[in-house]
Write a structure and sequence with these properties.
This protein is α+β, with helices and mostly antiparallel strands. It folds into 2 domains: about 30-145, Immunoglobulin-like; about 150-280, no CATH class. Helix content is about 25%, strand content about 25%. The protein contains 7 helices and 14 strands. The strands form 4 sheets. Strands 4, 5, 7, 10 and 11 form a 5-stranded antiparallel β-sheet that branches. The radius of gyration is 24 Å and the shape is elongated.
Length: about 280
Amino acid sequence: MKLNNVSLPYPVLGNGDDIVPSLPDDCISVSSPMVTKNDFTFHVILHFDNEDIRELIAQGKAEYACEITCPRTYLRRCVKSDKQYFDITLGRKEVFGRIDFDCYVIVKQPIKGYFNHMFNKDYDGATFDMEPGDILVAFPTATFNASLDYEKLDKAGALMVVMENKNEEDDKTWFDADDDKIIVYLPHDMFEQYQELGNDNEFNEMFHASIVFNALIYALSNYNEDQDKDRLWAQAIQYRIDTEPELQGFELKDQSHAYDLASLLLDDPYKRLFNRIKEQRQ
């Protein structure tokens, strides 16, 4: 029931001016999911300010609806409620990649001569005969990425991957943030040394305080919301901003705080490095 570029023959409360005031910025909230081995459980809360529509819901003539779609797995599900919230459980094997939550208030019973006191003045005196399924409120789409490994978002591997720079004419270390994960390209000799280290945790602090920290600062400093917001590394960071108290107030689009945000995401890599050196010298 997506409404992109769709014009309806009756006024709808949304982000336009059919009905005023339009929806507030916090009109839809999809909580970070409760994750189990088999399921994601989401808590969706809807909010709007229109007494006429609230009264129709109270009278049983309208109801809340949430349509859940996953383009990669073709999942499509719709749940309805007379309350402004939903608890939605999806199997982890049912979804992959982006999940969209499209929520509405829809007509439940025929409504003859629908009128809303908050209609735009262009609709002065107009009434509408509404049928079940017609839309009274259209909330903006909320999304969630099911491909993220939510148990490991505090690990560097959730954000980036190390690969070999095979360009012999440009044999240096460089970063690429134009993919789902930030890519660190190492020259051939350095890449072989990196592979030899394998999973040796002894070098984690050194690696984080140098290459990982620089790569993360690079990605954050060059973040472009239109191009990067759907990349896995950006969604992983946004999830942490939304859920970790110490990251509250940061915004991905604010490039001026790239250094501070990167430092917090990596738990102060310089401090960790010096603590490790101190431990090794004792």
